[in-house]
Amino acid sequence: MTDALFKAVEARRDEVVALTAELIRFPTVNPPGEAYTPCAEYVGAYLRKLGFETEFIRGEGAPGDTDRYPRTNVVARFDGRVPGPSVHFNSHIDVVEAGEGWSVDPFAGVVKDGKVYGRGACDMKGGLAASIIAAQAFMQVYPDFPGAIEISGTVDEESGGFGGVAHLAKLGYFSKPKVDHVIIPEPLNKDRICLGHRGVWWAEIATKGVIAHGSMPFLGDNAVRHMGAVLQAFEDELFPALDRKTTRMPVVPEGARRSTMNINSIHGGQTEDFRPGLPSPNVPDACRLTIDRRFLLEEEIGTVKKEVTSILERLKRERPKFDYEIRDIMEVQPNMTERDAPVVKAVAQGIMEVFDREPGYVISPGTYDQKHVARLGHLYDCIAYGPGILDLAHRPDEWVGIDDMVESAKVMAVGLNILLRGGAQ
């Protein structure tokens, strides 16, 4: 019956292309959260036509949720003829800004040369479309299947997922007994299974000073110079130490198999909002720095934080007038699903049958919504698997291959058969 599944997917080749292109045409840019509701409604209407029961859940109270930009999520469920396990395909519908450098309209859903182009094509509207086609094919071939299939389109993954999967997980949408297995069709290549991600700690460091006239800086205390000392200490001490740390996690690309920290932003001095390029002639009394620390399974979050705070405390002892504050923004533990987990083995079998080779097993350098499934839903049978090349995400002329979507849908359909029917013919 694998041949029947594959033929059912192939018969929907044009459908997966049209669906992907239509999804791209919703400019669901985050921030601020444009077009979330019409995109979610489109997905819901599409799935209702297939017999799914659909509901819309707004991420009320989440960052960015307003009446103008509501955090609208769609969750659809199709119950089989008899009770059994549930498989949930979760895709985020939000995309990052288009940016410059495109040769095509980023929100036109252009189809050419065997690819669908557009912002979100790869990350991850092509994956959402492939999961829907996989479910359709499986339901056609096995109409009497046991259990349930769920498909969701959620928001805000690009900004942490708090109005999307995190909100739904708090409400029980990603916990047993409602859901047993979760597949997130992120673009990590069609023949690889992503088992999880590195940990992350975002924090804001603020240095303090005393305002004074810029012509007499000796009468004040320069917070920007204090932050310069912080950055220098990071360069001399912290960054070399992080680069020496390695992991057993199969993180891709190779450079991410070490601990890393990025300086996301720095803001100091008086505002330039009204006179760009011409700040007030004052000694800056405040400076803020945002750090993005990615850490490994072998590291403890307490140690990760202490590496930073110990430098700040030393500067406080050694540097005259130095003072600081540090504020946690987000922390997520590293996550790695074991290779013998049911969802891993099911998708691995699908990759074997489609590509006739063992899958690659990888870990994402950055987090994605698996973090909320694990930490809030306490559901650990979860992976990322989908079409698309990770390196294309967030770049100009982003695209997803049509063949890649079709082949990934075949893998997902085999996975559904194994997880819901035990792989019976």
Helix content: 25-40%
* Class derived from helix and strand content: alpha/beta
Total number of helices:
10
The CA-CA distance between the termini, in Å, is 5 Å
Strand order of the largest sheet: 1-2-6-3-7-15
Please state the overall shape, judged from the principal axes of the Cα atoms: elongated
Low-confidence stretches: none
Number of strands: 16
Largest sheet data: 6 strands, mixed
CATH class of the largest domain reads: Alpha Beta
CATH architecture of the largest domain: 3-Layer(aba) Sandwich
CATH H-level homologous superfamily name of the largest domain: Zn peptidases
Describe the secondary-structure layout.
Blueprint (H helix, E strand, L loop, with lengths): L1 H9 L2 H12 L11 H14 L3 E6 L13 E8 L2 E11 L17 E3 L2 E3 L3 H21 L4 E9 L10 H6 L10 E4 L7 E6 L1 E10 L14 H21 L16 E9 L17 E10 L5 H18 L5 E9 L2 E2 L5 H14 L4 E5 L5 H6 L6 E3 L14 E3 H20 L4
Helix pairs in contact: 1-4, 1-10, 2-4, 4-10, 6-7, 8-10
